[in-house]
Protein backbone atom coordinates (compact mmCIF):
# COMPACT_ATOMS: atom_id res chain seq x y z
CA UNK A 1 0.00 0.00 0.00
CA UNK A 2 1.30 3.44 -0.91
CA UNK A 3 2.11 6.03 1.72
CA UNK A 4 -0.54 8.79 1.76
CA UNK A 5 0.52 12.13 0.29
CA UNK A 6 0.73 15.14 2.59
CA UNK A 7 -0.78 17.26 -0.19
CA UNK A 8 -4.05 16.40 -1.91
CA UNK A 9 -3.56 15.41 -5.53
CA UNK A 10 -5.07 17.05 -8.59
CA UNK A 11 -4.72 15.97 -12.19
CA UNK A 12 -4.40 18.85 -14.63
CA UNK A 13 -6.39 18.33 -17.82
CA UNK A 14 -6.58 20.17 -21.10
CA UNK A 15 -7.58 19.47 -24.67
CA UNK A 16 -4.73 20.62 -26.90
CA UNK A 17 -7.03 20.46 -29.92
CA UNK A 18 -9.00 23.24 -28.23
CA UNK A 19 -6.00 25.12 -26.80
CA UNK A 20 -4.01 25.06 -30.06
CA UNK A 21 -1.50 27.95 -29.95
CA UNK A 22 -2.30 28.76 -26.31
CA UNK A 23 -1.34 25.29 -25.05
CA UNK A 24 1.77 26.44 -23.08
CA UNK A 25 -0.28 29.23 -21.49
CA UNK A 26 -3.13 26.82 -20.58
CA UNK A 27 -0.67 24.34 -19.07
CA UNK A 28 0.84 27.09 -16.93
CA UNK A 29 -2.58 28.36 -15.84
CA UNK A 30 -3.89 24.99 -14.70
CA UNK A 31 -0.67 24.12 -12.93
CA UNK A 32 -0.61 27.49 -11.14
CA UNK A 33 -4.31 27.19 -10.17
CA UNK A 34 -3.75 23.71 -8.71
CA UNK A 35 -0.71 24.88 -6.75
CA UNK A 36 -2.55 27.98 -5.54
CA UNK A 37 -5.27 25.71 -4.10
CA UNK A 38 -2.69 23.49 -2.36
CA UNK A 39 -2.74 20.50 -4.70
CA UNK A 40 0.20 18.36 -5.75
CA UNK A 41 0.14 17.82 -9.53
CA UNK A 42 1.74 14.55 -10.63
CA UNK A 43 0.68 14.79 -14.29
CA UNK A 44 -1.14 16.61 -17.05
CA UNK A 45 -3.56 14.69 -19.24
CA UNK A 46 -4.28 15.82 -22.80
CA UNK A 47 -7.84 14.88 -23.74
CA UNK A 48 -6.97 15.28 -27.42
CA UNK A 49 -5.15 11.96 -26.94
CA UNK A 50 -7.12 10.33 -24.10
CA UNK A 51 -10.75 9.58 -23.31
CA UNK A 52 -12.95 9.95 -20.23
CA UNK A 53 -12.28 6.37 -19.10
CA UNK A 54 -8.53 7.03 -19.16
CA UNK A 55 -9.00 10.25 -17.19
CA UNK A 56 -11.13 8.54 -14.54
CA UNK A 57 -8.63 5.66 -14.34
CA UNK A 58 -5.71 8.06 -13.87
CA UNK A 59 -7.60 9.97 -11.16
CA UNK A 60 -8.48 6.75 -9.35
CA UNK A 61 -4.96 5.32 -9.49
CA UNK A 62 -3.41 8.61 -8.34
CA UNK A 63 -6.08 9.01 -5.63
CA UNK A 64 -6.75 12.49 -7.02
CA UNK A 65 -9.28 14.71 -5.28
CA UNK A 66 -9.65 17.16 -8.16
CA UNK A 67 -9.21 17.76 -11.86
CA UNK A 68 -8.06 21.25 -12.88
CA UNK A 69 -9.02 22.51 -16.35
CA UNK A 70 -8.62 25.87 -18.13
CA UNK A 71 -12.41 25.96 -18.66
CA UNK A 72 -15.30 23.51 -18.81
CA UNK A 73 -14.92 23.54 -22.61
CA UNK A 74 -11.88 21.28 -22.12
CA UNK A 75 -14.00 18.46 -20.65
CA UNK A 76 -16.34 16.26 -22.68
CA UNK A 77 -19.97 16.37 -21.43
CA UNK A 78 -19.75 12.91 -19.82
CA UNK A 79 -16.58 13.72 -17.87
CA UNK A 80 -18.13 15.75 -15.04
CA UNK A 81 -20.58 12.98 -14.17
CA UNK A 82 -17.90 10.27 -14.44
CA UNK A 83 -15.55 12.26 -12.18
CA UNK A 84 -18.31 12.93 -9.64
CA UNK A 85 -19.00 9.18 -9.50
CA UNK A 86 -15.45 8.64 -8.18
CA UNK A 87 -15.56 11.73 -5.89
CA UNK A 88 -13.24 13.89 -7.98
CA UNK A 89 -14.07 17.60 -8.08
CA UNK A 90 -13.67 19.79 -11.14
CA UNK A 91 -11.79 23.07 -10.67
CA UNK A 92 -11.62 25.65 -13.48
CA UNK A 93 -9.40 28.62 -14.19
CA UNK A 94 -12.05 30.48 -16.25
CA UNK A 95 -14.50 31.13 -14.75
CA UNK A 96 -12.75 30.66 -11.43
CA UNK A 97 -14.56 27.72 -9.86
CA UNK A 98 -13.01 25.96 -6.88
CA UNK A 99 -14.40 22.94 -5.03
CA UNK A 100 -16.08 24.99 -2.28
CA UNK A 101 -16.98 28.06 -4.31
CA UNK A 102 -20.67 27.15 -4.42
CA UNK A 103 -20.97 26.93 -0.64
CA UNK A 104 -19.16 30.23 -0.15
CA UNK A 105 -21.37 31.97 -2.70
CA UNK A 106 -24.53 30.56 -1.07
CA UNK A 107 -23.34 31.94 2.29
CA UNK A 108 -22.75 35.40 0.79
CA UNK A 109 -26.19 35.39 -0.83
CA UNK A 110 -27.78 34.37 2.47
CA UNK A 111 -25.95 37.18 4.28
CA UNK A 112 -27.00 39.71 1.64
CA UNK A 113 -30.66 38.68 1.75
CA UNK A 114 -30.70 38.82 5.56
CA UNK A 115 -29.15 42.32 5.48
CA UNK A 116 -31.71 43.46 2.91
CA UNK A 117 -34.57 42.17 5.06
CA UNK A 118 -33.28 44.01 8.14
CA UNK A 119 -32.80 47.22 6.15
CA UNK A 120 -36.36 47.19 4.76
CA UNK A 121 -38.02 47.07 8.18
Task: Summarize the structure in words.
The chain has 121 residues and is α/β, with parallel strands linked by helices. The chain contains five helices and four strands. The protein has helices at residues 16-19, 23-36, 52-62, 77-85, 101-119, and strands at 10-14, 44-46, 66-69, 89-92. Strands 2-1-3-4 form a four-stranded parallel sheet, with helices on both faces. α3 (52-62) runs parallel beside α4 (77-85).
Instruction: Average the pLDDT over all residues and give the rounded result.
Output: 81
The unreliable regions are: 101-118
Distance from first to last alpha carbon: 61 Å
CATH superfamily caption: Resolvase, N-terminal catalytic domain
Largest sheet: 4 strands, parallel
User: Could you name the CATH topology?
Assistant: Rossmann fold
- Strand proportion, as a percent range, falls in 5-15%
Shape: globular
| CATH-level-2 architecture | 3-Layer(aba) Sandwich
Going across the biggest sheet, name each strand in turn.
2-1-3-4
Number of domains: 1
Q: What structural class should be given to the helix and strand makeup?
A: alpha/beta
By DSSP, the count of extended strands is 4
Number of contiguous helices: 5
> What is the helical fraction, as a range of percent?
40-55%
The CATH top-level class label = Alpha Beta
Short description:
With 121 residues, the protein is an alpha/beta fold. It has helices spanning 16-19, 23-36, 52-62, 77-85, 101-119, and strands at 10-14, 44-46, 66-69, 89-92. It has a single domain (10-119), classed as Resolvase, N-terminal catalytic domain (Rossmann fold, 3-Layer(aba) Sandwich), CATH 3.40.50.
Amino acid sequence: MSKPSVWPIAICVLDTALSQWSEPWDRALISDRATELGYKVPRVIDLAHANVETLVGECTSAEARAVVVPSLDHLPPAAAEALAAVNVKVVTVYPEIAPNAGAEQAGREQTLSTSDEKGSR
